[in-house]
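Exam revision sheet. Question 4 asks you to relate a sequence to its structure. Input first:
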Amino acid sequence: MPAVRIPPRTTSGSEIEDIPGRVLNHPEKETMRRILLTLLTLFPMTALAGVPFEATLEDMAVSADHILVGRVTGVDMIDGAGKPVTDPKARTGPGSRNTIRLRISVDRVLVSTVDPVPRQLFVPLASHLHYSLGQIQAAHAQASDPRLMFLKGTAFDGIKPGVFMRPMEDRREAFRLRKAAGRSRD
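Answer key, structure tokens:
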């Protein structure tokens, strides 16, 4: 069967042809443009809603009130009233008042503005992210290797929500960055 050629349709400058035979006039074109711009404006905001915070080694080293060597030894969850939550399916995220915390066993204090530093800390993860208690417990089920812990304030919070651990190999560079920023005498 021979191919049938459809001649291109000619439109004026204010019209566009979206599908063969249907032409959008100028007002429809403007409406589509506004909808597209609105969607493109909203997309970055919604895309970032579930993205974990990030911090560079420099951010962490310079901002930390405490630099510790520690290990994750457990995971727990508390509700908005501070009561324990034990259901592994319990979740965090927007609209939830639950917070998942990592239990940190402090092996060594390298820098701290507090004396004494507790031997065990509960450091909250980012509560805006969608996690279940069971998911985080499974991720930390095995004993962890010692890591550098960069924390701030008297509550020993992460530099950014849930961001506070680095490998031990970063120790020398962290202290070099801290010294360059004038924080060597803490």
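Marking note for examiners. Helices lie at 26-48, 57-63, 133-139, 171-180.
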